[in-house]
């Protein structure tokens, strides 16, 4: 019996069985059904790393509640541009998911998306003043028109009872709420999308690691394969390769040897969450409540209390508590970070490290926190929380981008970045947040960058079927924005 793929050549090879590869594969299958598509996932199941429901916040990032997407300027003003951009991107993802549901390509949307209001909650005079300014900057925009603001404790308690119950009646508090927020199980969505690909002539390989990616003399990419369980080796050629393996993407990007990938490094950040599966407690809270990050903390460490739906069951998640591990994947090796160091990236990585000593100090303090200290931190947001009701779980591994910078030598970047060869034959995705929520616009960028002729001359009609408002800014078209959001909400069965 053979375990390695017997396909010797493919038009498209997708490395990694997460939401990014799943989205790109589902798009290509509809745009170019005559192309052969092969997926390689090194684990025995899809979506177990960053796409897994307990490995990410599942927020459906749309900048409704994430304060780091709209920080205050030095003069106290708030520029809504980035928040609007993030929301625009999420609307594209919603349209694509609605298309997949309405076309019968994937199952019930209730399996992967549910309505959960998005809230921001802050304490103290300065933070409350900021939140009011943020609200006033976002509210006039069509994509944020439903946002509510309140400093009334009774109103905030009606929105988030667990956050207010037992809280001392002192100090200024403020909150915003957007009722149309969502919770997304990207692990379930990944399985649905790759399931569609598998039933439409795509080939899905599990337990198979891509160990090397090299350009052949015929200009095609030669991939070396290893089946973990059997130890069997193999290879496959590809006309186009997408490296969407999360933290594992950096190693393969380096192996490819493309000049565009030189100088990039990765800084892994681990994290833990408190999870409560007590149905009586979970029933008392229905929102995602985001606070302000601590001074020196990275954006992904913003404290939040999330309502989650996983496998049809409602639970609560609080965190994160940042940590550090040299793994690039949760299932990876402690050697991932040291083995990623190259002559081309050692200086940018060192420079970025020197410019982020505050982050290092923060991570050390987080690692040293006891469980009781973590419970105390949670009680700042849930005053009556009982640590016995919450279990501490380890979340997915995030690998932040470290890259060259003319002024500083090297910088640490907290977003995502697409790196492609000059001829578009290979592309990789590095970075983290907002990640999964913006998978569709990220994959659109890859399609446009790597297949410019097809994108412009052949695929426009197909793309418009998947994403009707492609190329249009919804925030600049209030009527269209309202209609589009209502239509996708109806198809996705959102309340």
UniProtKB/TrEMBL annotation:
Keyword Oxidoreductase appears in the UniProt entry: yes
Alphabetical keyword list: FAD, Flavoprotein, Oxidoreductase, Tricarboxylic acid cycle
Pathway(s) this gene product operates in, as recorded in its UniProt entry: Carbohydrate metabolism; tricarboxylic acid cycle; oxaloacetate from (S)-malate (quinone route): step 1/1
Coiled coil: none
Gene3D superfamilies for this protein: FAD/NAD(P)-binding domain
InterPro entries, alphabetized: FAD/NAD-bd_sf, MQO
SUPFAM superfamilies in the cross-refs: FAD/NAD(P)-binding domain (SSF51905)
EC number: 1.1.5.4
Residues making up the signal peptide according to the UniProt record: none
UniProt entry tagged with the keyword Flavoprotein: yes
Reaction it catalyzes: (S)-malate + a quinone = a quinol + oxaloacetate
MF (Gene Ontology): L-malate dehydrogenase (quinone) activity
Cofactor: FAD
Family: Belongs to the MQO family.
Protein's name according to its UniProt entry: Probable malate:quinone oxidoreductase
Organism field: Arthrobacter russicus
